[in-house]
Design goal:
Strands 1, 2, 3, 4, 5, 6, 7 and 8 form an eight-stranded mixed beta sheet that branches. This protein is of the alpha/beta class. Helix 4 (about 175-180) links the parallel strand 6 and strand 7 (about 185-190). Helix 1 (about 10-25) packs across helix 2 (about 30-45) and helix 3 packs parallel to helix 5. It is globular, with a radius of gyration of 25 Å. The chain is built from six helices and eight strands. About 35% of the residues lie in helices and about 25% in strands. The longest helix is centred in the C-terminal third of the chain and has 27 residues, at about 220-245. The chain has helices at about 10-25, 30-45, 80-95, 175-180, 190-200, 220-245, and strands at about 50-60, 75, 100-110, 120-130, 145, 160-165, 185-190, 205-215.
Length: about 250
């Protein structure tokens, strides 16, 4: 098995000679210089090495069949709703804290849309808390998170919604909630805001991709039936994102 040597690595012999020259030590004090050099090299070799990984966060296992291509990608399923999402992601990050990993979070999954056809991949520009609604100027009364994916040129031509609303309710055309937002260029789902909040608190880059599963015109059972049709789109989106961000 070969060894990996840092380009900044300085051999002990070289370091020892440098120390002898700088300190103007006679040759009899070579052991002292060797000790100093060895300590210095040990500190260099014990530097913490961090690695970057993509943490793919999905609400429901039925939304994706994606299998990570390598150990730089991890996938977790949170369960539905903001509370489940927040707890799952925060606990996962806490458990991984000692592994010296710099995470990038990708939240991907299904959403409802009044505007885009089923199967459409849509990038929301902002993520809002959907369960805090004030009739006038709701955007001024809830935190908003920006979708980091907008900075990637790979997605510059993707469909974009002005925002996604995370709400712990299944939205359909008959609900008052839908009536309030049907004229906005927006998406509806249940977890993104909570995941973005945890990412922000942890100072972790956050990216969000949604795939339309319904036009707010069905039931949870209809949602389950459509998943087999849109899973390939979600899996491809994960693969494309990881290739873009890691390579």
């Amino acid at each position: 098995m070969g060894s990996v040597i840092s380009p900044n690595f300085t051999p002990i012999a070289t370091k020892t000679n440098n120390i002898m020259r700088k300190m103007k030590l006679p040759s009899m004090l070579m052991p002292v210089a060797l000790s100093i050099a060895f300590t210095s090299c040990s500190k260099e070799n014990n530097e913490v090495i961090t690695q970057t990984k993509v943490l793919v966060v999905i609400a429901h296992e039925d939304e994706s069949d994606y299998m990570p291509a390598d150990d730089k990608i991890e996938v977790i399923y949170t369960g539905m709703g903001k509370l489940n999402a927040a707890l799952k992601v925060s606990n996962y990050l806490k458990d991984q804290k000692e592994h010296n990993t710099n995470y990038i979070i990708l939240n991907i999954g299904t959403c409802g849309s009044p505007n885009y056809p089923v199967g459409s991949l849509v990038i929301p520009k902002k993520i809002y808390q959907g369960d805090i609604f004030i009739e006038e100027g709701f955007k001024d009364h809830t935190s908003a998170y920006t979708n980091g994916i907008l900075s990637l040129s790979f997605y510059k031509n993707a469909l974009q919604a002005d925002f996604v609303l995370s709400s712990d309710q299944f939205i359909n055309t008959s609900s008052p909630f839908y009536q309030k937002f049907k004229d906005y260029n927006c998406l509806f789902e249940m977890e993104a805001y909570a995941i973005a909040s945890v990412a922000s608190e942890s100072k972790i880059p956050f990216y969000c991709i949604k795939v339309v599963s319904d036009n707010c015109d069905g039931t949870p059972k209809d949602w389950g039936n459509i998943l087999s049709q849109i899973r390939p789109e979600i899996d491809k989106a994960i693969s494309d994102f990881c290739k873009e961000i890691l390579h």
